Amino acid sequence: MITTSAQPSPRLPKSQSMTPRLSQLKEQLRLAAMLLALLTGTLLITGLWQQSLGEDSLLSAGRGAIFFLLALGLMGTRRLSLVLTALLCSAAATRLVSVGTTTGLTDWLEMLMLVICVSVLLLPTDPRGPEQPET
């Protein structure tokens, strides 16, 4: 016969109860940044077929390949890919404020990625680390 005790379940402190939600939010933001990096990389590479072949189009296609590699890094859990993506996207901020340049869809996607990456970097980290089991 199975008996259940009427003891109340132990309540976690507020800092520990928010950790799963926070880690889920960070994971979802990283995945959104990854999808934006893939989209930006695809748009930059397909510019080879839309523009005449020149130095500018080859440089943007090279940036697209870098965005593909950063998207692979954003699938992980380390912060280096977030920092590198934010640094690469910060170049779009200078293009948005400079006079005489046209802004494209990729510039706005890079700005959105910059906001997402900086947001994930500024969210608090788990003090236990990813390798320690929960107790």
Written overview of the protein:
The radius of gyration is 21 Å and the shape is elongated. It has helices at 14-17, 19-50, 55-74, 80-97, 105-122. The longest helix has 32 residues, at 19-50. 68% of the residues lie in helices and 0% in strands. It has one domain. The chain is mostly helical and 135 residues long. The protein is built from five helices and no strands.
Number of strands: 0
List segments where confidence is low: pLDDT < 50 over at least 5 consecutive residues. none
Order of helices and strands: HHHHH
- Structural class comes to mainly alpha
- What overall form do the CA principal axes indicate? elongated
Give me the number of helical elements: 5
Helix content: 55-70%
Q: Residue-averaged pLDDT, rounded?
A: 83
Which sheet architecture does the biggest sheet show? none
Number of individual domains: 1
What proportion of the residues form beta strands (DSSP E)?
under 5%
